[in-house]
Amino acid sequence: MRVLRTGAGWVLGLQFSPDARALAAYVRGQGVFLWNLDAAGPPVCISPRASDRAEGVYFTPDGRGVGWLDYDGWNVYDRDARRLSRVRLSGPGQIFRLLPGPAGDRVYTQHTFPQHALVGWRATPAGWERDWEVTTRHLNVEQLTVSPAGDQLAVLTRPTTGPKWVDKHFVLELRSAASGRVLSSAPYPWKVTGPLVVAPDGRHVVGLHGMTVVVWAAGDRGDPALVRDASRNPFYAGAFDPLSRHLFAARSDGTVHVFDAAGWGCRVRFDWGVGPLRTVAVSPDGTLAAAGNERGELVVWDVDLD
């Protein structure tokens, strides 16, 4: 187990590189950091003024770039050239959220004023071109994530039409990543939302709502399964292992619970004594996990659940 440190702040974004040899993190009030896990040195701060939009920090598929969204647009840091560049997207409104597809040739954005929309983009020799656009003028889109396979978007949303729309429950929608159209929908039991995680094999979508793990099976249009224990500490973040066998869930009591996706029982619980954990990630090869707390600290440990 290793503890990596930055300045004081909540660790809200966390991602391993494709080869599991580097780690990127966004720390509120401190910026975007990059660690070489093969070395013992301090991290490199590649963007000291990043905002909370950078919580979606990610690596490009070749591992040579680190990208994130900020108020000034879409930023990509070249690890070889050690240079930061901005990618232009001619969108319908201000970009509020940006999600890259796993192959690197697709990007999905959520836009706000003056035109609310979800937009799918594809890479072309001439740059990024708009592939599809879905208006969200009358939708409250709270959570949005792309499946690891890159074929679907999972969305928690509700209509904003009619009186007292804020009293309506949300709905889980699975949308086509190729067109943005709704493929299926299922009830979400609450009026507020938490993070969404899609299993790499696409068989489950999981939401984290307070002290509850919310589980939908693929194609399920009925009520989700609700997994709870005796603890009163909420879950803040979740991540699947690459084989979709286990869900790692970070909790406010400083623990990471590992749930078995076969029956959703808690198989093991990690407690590193570092305080409330705000984010968690599992390396693409499944050998490492990392979690970040509210003091700018990250815990990295070896994973062996066999």
From TrEMBL:
Report the InterPro entries cross-referenced here.
Answer: WD40/YVTN_repeat-like_dom_sf, WD40_rpt
SMART domains in alphabetical order: WD40
Among PROSITE patterns, the record links this protein to:
WD_REPEATS_2, WD_REPEATS_REGION
Instruction: Pinpoint the residue ranges of every WD repeat in the record.
Output: 277-306
List the keywords (alphabetical): WD repeat
Name of the protein this chain belongs to: Uncharacterized protein
